[in-house]
Amino acid sequence: MSKVSCIKPTDRQAIEWVKEAGSQKRRLVFTDYAELRMKERRIGRRQVLETLQSGRISEPLHQDIRGDWRCNVSWFHAGVRLTVGVVFKLSAKGEWVVIATVFEG
């Protein structure tokens, strides 16, 4: 198994990578935590992908306590504002967009 590390994209790269992940042109991974929260909150993958494709950065790129670079992306889907927590990772196979959590609001 290859080592996965954090990567700091520029603001422009972050937006580009998020939109590519939403249109399935970049590697996208949902954490178990995100999957659980989506199930509890009745949020589907299609809603998340639409948020990634069309959404705006609602919380700017920043480094969290673990050293990961992340941002939040928000978009309205069927009249409800969805926010997707995105983490950027790097492995030998390239850059990854990881969905850390999803919530309404």
TrEMBL record:
InterPro entries: DUF4258
Protein name: DUF4258 domain-containing protein
